[in-house]
Fold:
Amino acid sequence: MGVGGREFRGRPVTGPRPAADRLGSAAPPALVLLAGRSRAHDVRRVAAGAGRALPGARIVTLPGVGHHALPELRSAELERELTGFLAG
Structure:
């Protein structure tokens, strides 16, 4: 989402959370990228929950950006994290 995403003032619609007991059995490596200024969720809570549900996951919070603007404003960091994760 481009510039309009940064101006979003409504409450985002989110889907149901995956069941933690089902995530724990996931064997593949996991990367959790979080937008540090997201309004959709509490970043610290999501990071902590992901760490509990996905032991060994790489959890990265990119500061200073909301989740809609993440690809536009933090594209270099996003690309670096994704490329590093996929290469590993």
User: Anything to note?
Assistant: The mean pLDDT is 80. DSSP finds five helices and two strands in the chain. The radius of gyration is 14 Å. The longest helix spans residues 75-87.
